[in-house]
Protein: Oxidation resistance protein 1
Organism: Lottia gigantea
Amino acid sequence: MLTEIRLCQCIKFYFQLSNALPPRTIGYPWTLVYSSENHGFSLKTLYRNMQGLDSPVLIVVEDTNGHVFGAVTNCPLKMSDHFYGTGESFLYTFYPDFKIFHWSGDNNFFLKGNQESLAIGSGQ
């Protein structure tokens, strides 16, 4: 159950993040596709639930300390032998303050998933 303080924090997060979303996300209907609370902790389920989608994806993670972070990807997540996606994808955090990590332009390593892990952004 959301407390009043937590609800105010969620609303603040919503406005900060919505101002950073790529223009093409406007008009897409937002649908909850995966939640660890509803679907458990399986990457296979996450990938399976995203099959057939053709829209940007908003990933929101809350860690055990209550810190919220995540990513916006230009396409659904999937298992792949190679990196995919575009520089429209980015990472973000709300801790300790709201910050966005955009594509550096150094490489094209945006998204890559397998049965054991999901990588969003990568160095060499």
